[in-house]
Amino acid sequence: MMKKWSLKSLYLGFDDPKYSEDLNQLDQLILEINSQSVDFDNYDQKERKLVKYLENEMLLEALIDKLYHFASLTSSVESTNQEANKMVNLLQTKLTQLTKISTLFTNWMKDYPNLEEDIAHNDFLKEHQFYLNEVKDHAGHLLSTELEVMLAKLRQTGSSSWGRLQSLLTSTLDVEYDGKIITLSEVRNLATDKDPEVRKKAYEAELNAYKKIEDSVAFALNSIKGEVNTVSKARNFDSPLAEALNKSRMKSETLEAMQSAVKEYYGIFRKYLQRKAELLGHKNGLPFYDLFAPIGKNDTSFTIEEANAYILKNFKTFSNSLHDLAKRAFDEEWVDYTPRKGKRGGAFCANMHVIKESRVMTNFTGSFSDMITLSHELGHAYHGEAIFKESVLNSSYTMPVAETASTFCETIVNNAAIKDVTTKEEKIFLLESSLQDYTQVVVDIMSRFIFEKSVFEGREKTVFDAKELKELMLDAQKQTYGDGLDENLLHPYMWICKPHYYSGGLSYYNFPYTYGLLFAKGLYAKYLEDKEAFVKIYDDLLAATGQMQVEEVAALAGIDVTKKEFWVSSLELLKKDIELFLELTE
């Protein structure tokens, strides 16, 4: 079987005449869209103008979907492919030509008279009602056209540049470890090593290396958060958090209910961490460097064919449609499996609405964890399959619901594996691997939220030096991990290595992960209550994620995410796994 994906559904190559044709068509379309700027001076024939703009937006999405994905997907597995890299940059530059018209349109929508009336008698507009109402809402937070264009340009030398600096400094940082010079990602990967001495020495080497860049990265963080505070205020948001919630399509009550429930479950996570500390011979809680230490034993490895077969078998227990989607992905070469030189690390799934297909990239080496990653990414492909039935303008979903299908699929395969293993040591290994993930997404994410909130609030009055940022991080970790971790062996530099803090356009890139995990777990519990009826509810829910607030999406499954009770019920499921681990390791 092929271990690499095929992109022939998009183009045969950059020299494919169709690629050049589509690139030329994109240029023509950008000119046509920009020529519509005169339409937005008044509201004469407003309905015709609105329909025309949306139709052009759909054509633009289709072209960009093909052109950009072909270039970016090629680049992701061939990082030295100059043609692919140039094309990614070229397409990004071309799209900046639409900033002005996009702002004009959004501002025009702000005062659009009788929008609901036009929507009521026009089926095309009715189909895009949520999209239009969201544009109208965003218009209330938009600056003038001139200021928006200026801000887009200034960001390139402001927050975007500071973000690139953080990326450059962390990716080129030399770490002295065991007499050798290695990279930051290499030393951080040693956190999962079986040898306790390796883990400890790697942690010490990592912390020591940060001293070389702490002042520069602190300057970058201060600059980005200061910019966001300024822009957020100018856009009439109460705070950067209010803006992040708006972008997430989430009410503040939902976040408060979820975080209130999470705080009540710190205790059970601390019990897990204390037990892990005992198993590893620590007396004062778990040192940070042993958070990812393996517990138990699992030497099982999978070929690609075996992993595919295991996933298909277990996906079929949920539904034929999930099984068939995964089979199609395997048969039609949607997956790029194995690591090779020039291929980026990690894993992702790209949904391509224009061809109604997805592509999955993994770095599969045969471990159980690799199989779980593959099932996770196929969940994203299944979400794509549901969204493809909707208009492309109704297909953009937010971070909190983005991890729903992926976590759900991961849960299906992981639960099956825990049942299938034959030894106690294997069961402990699989269970504890899940608990590591839960701890990161529930406890560590909360510490990141607390830290970021402190930085935003403090930046209103002061500039933090590296020492103060370290103190804020330690305080956040103590609040969440408590006595589960050894307070003398925490990680004061977690703000340097996490890229999530360094975006001017996406703040609080943390709480959506907690939402994704707990919402998916809650859905899985609903599935267990009535397996047959749930499948259609689930598919409809995924299809609706691009055109509803997260609260409305949840309501389709009879869930009220503004109520603490739901989050408690999801956390109870995680608690059961922790209690099983405690029982197995007594």
Automatic annotation (TrEMBL):
One of its GO terms (molecular function) is metallocarboxypeptidase activity. GO terms for biological process: proteolysis. Residues 190-572 form the Peptidase M3A/M3B catalytic domain. The keyword Membrane does not apply. Keywords: Hydrolase, Metal-binding, Metalloprotease, Protease, Zinc. Its cofactor is Zn(2+). Residues 115-173 form the Oligopeptidase F N-terminal domain. Binds 1 zinc ion. The keyword Repeat does not apply. Belongs to the peptidase M3 family. This is M3 family oligoendopeptidase. It comes from Hujiaoplasma nucleasis. The lineage of its organism: Bacteria, Bacillati, Mycoplasmatota, Mollicutes, Candidatus Izemoplasmatales.
